[in-house]
Design goal:
Layout lengths: L4 H12 L9 E4 L6 H13 L4 E5 L12 H17 L1 E2 L4 E8 L2 E8 L8 E2 L8 E4 L2 E4 L2 H11 L8 E6 L1 H7 L2 H8 L7 H10 L3 E4 L2 E5 H7 L14 E6 L7 E7 L7 H11 L2 E5 L4 E5 L3 H13 L11 E4 L3 E7 L19 H9 L9 H11 L6 E4 L3 E7 L9 H17 L6 H8 L6 H13 L3 E3 L12 E3 L3
Parallel strand pairs: 1-2, 12-16
Antiparallel strand pairs: 2-5, 3-6, 4-5, 7-8, 9-11, 10-11, 12-13, 14-15, 16-17, 17-19, 18-19, 20-21
Length: 482
């Protein structure tokens, strides 16, 4: 087996279960199309897509599997190889493998992400470049093409320049350097030269002859006003409060114009101050408790700031407060499948930014944030958070408290699945008892817990921990990926 073949089969399984859906990483084909230009577009799209992807021959549009013969496989490989060499600029190299899947022979074509991008159609200009989005192949716009050119040259967002040719005084007027030293717990050095030397060591500022440049990293973290930096003005974090469950009536808007590090506590404070409270009565006192756990809000806001795609222009992170939920959105799709955020190794588009935010203790250690969000939702007896990958954005949704009787089927399934993920990463399994505890179900109502488990089993998000166990009373379950 080739080293990528197992990965391809795993993506194929994900695309077929719990229900058939084409993903950005994989495209099904029942047979070879006679439309060479459309095939070239698919190859262009995967070559330009982060991580590349796979064409799988032998899968119909409805997800049903059929055999691909050796003769058909050879014809497909030859035709796609010719297209890859002759119909694309720059030409690309394909790899292929045949594999058994559900007792049927499939042909898998591996298209690696190209080191030189964009890969476009030979018959057109650079504007004839394609990418993958929402499981489909589509044409890239010029903003995306410019972004992918920058990325292919190895220039990270953090290394870019937000302002250049400034004097030492001008730099310190634009950058909140005192917040930098405060967050690191370091004393403020004497003199501008010493301050700028330390900022340069952390790549927040760069010397430019006798003058200085402010890097994107320096500006996005410590700007006194992000709107003073043209390229970053749309990256200001916005908080919008709506009157009700929809966007018809805006109650209030707040723009946090400080850099993400220097302004993070103010941003979180603004959100918390706008949240509704619930009154909790204990045996000894009556107190107000915020509807949502602050830890969950901190983690989701930090994720939105850190993991956004800064090369998507005209949009930035947004925190929207409704009467029944909070939606936290950032530009750029999740680099990890949304139903694997709790267990997959973390990935970041902006590792320099993420590293600095962790060092400043603005966010948690790498990979622990989503676990905390799910845990806090259970602790507060809230519906499970919902993570949604949109066309060019990622959205995390926190829901206000609901009784189990008010939750719909999808909400029950999502809560059961996330509960199984939390248990599994802690070395445990879910049971009827643990589900009763999660939803505060009385022991006598154990059939209701069984119903929730069966609903989640039906959509194949969990599976029996021991398939050979025939006892319902002692059954336990794990996530589908375990």
């Amino acid at each position: 087996m080739k080293n990528w073949e197992g990965q391809a089969v795993e993506w194929l399984e994900k695309s077929l279960n719990p229900f058939p859906q084409e993903l950005n990483e994989i495209d099904w084909k029942s047979q070879l199309s006679h439309k060479n230009e459309r095939l070239a577009q698919h190859l262009s799209a995967f070559s330009n897509y982060e991580g590349g992807g796979f064409l799988v021959f032998g899968v119909d549009n409805d997800g049903s599997i059929k055999d691909i013969s050796a003769e058909d496989s050879e014809a497909i490989v030859n035709k796609l190889g010719n297209i890859a060499r002759s119909n694309l600029v720059p030409p690309i190299i394909l790899d292929h493998a045949t594999t058994k899947f559900h007792e049927r022979n499939l042909l898998i074509i591996r298209i690696n992400e190209s080191a030189e991008k964009p890969v476009h159609l030979h018959s057109g200009s650079i504007s004839d470049s394609y990418t993958r989005s929402a499981g489909q192949t589509r044409k890239m716009d010029m903003t995306e093409i410019k972004s992918i050119i920058t990325k292919s040259r190895g220039i990270s967002f953090e290394d870019g320049i937000s302002a250049q040719g400034l004097s030492a005084t001008e730099v310190l007027q634009k950058i909140n350097f005192t917040a930098y030293f405060d967050l690191l717990g370091r004393p403020l050095p004497d003199g501008n030269e010493a301050i700028l030397e330390i900022l340069s060591n952390d790549k927040l500022v760069r010397r430019n002859g006798e003058r200085f440049d402010i890097t994107n990293l320096g500006a996005i973290l410590f700007a006194k006003n992000l709107e003073e930096f043209d390229r970053l003005s749309r990256k200001v974090a916005r908080v919008i409060v709506y009157d009700g469950k929809n966007r018809l009536h805006t109650f209030r808007e707040i723009d946090e114009k400080n850099g993400y590090a220097s302004g993070f506590e103010t941003l979180i404070g603004s959100v918390n101050n706008l949240l509704p409270s619930n009154e909790v009565v204990t045996a000894t006192l009556r107190k107000e408790v915020k509807m949502y756990p602050e830890i969950a809000i901190r983690e989701l806001v930090a994720n939105a700031l850190i993991h956004q795609d800064f090369f998507i222009t005209g949009t930035g992170p947004m925190i929207e407060l409704f009467s029944d939920r909070i939606e936290i959105t950032n530009p750029g799709n999740s680099l990890i499948q949304t139903n694997r955020l709790l267990d997959m190794p973390p990935r970041s588009r902006n590792e320099g930014l993420a590293s600095m935010m962790r060092r400043l203790k603005v966010c948690e250690e790498q990979g622990s944030g989503i676990d905390k969000v799910a845990f806090e939702a259970e602790k507060f007896q809230l519906p499970a958070p919902h993570f949604v990958s949109l066309d060019e954005h990622f959205m995390a949704v926190l829901y206000a408290y609901k009784k189990l009787s008010e939750m719909n089927k999808d909400e029950r399934i999502r809560a059961c699945y996330l509960h199984s993920c939390l248990k599994y990463v802690s070395g445990e399994k879910i049971t009827n008892s643990s589900i009763r505890e999660r939803f505060k179900i009385e022991p006598k109502n154990y059939p209701l817990a069984s119903k929730i488990i069966n609903e989640t089993l039906t959509v194949k998000l969990i599976k029996p921990a021991d398939p050979n166990n025939k006892s319902k009373r002692h059954s336990s379950y794990v996530p589908f990926w375990a």
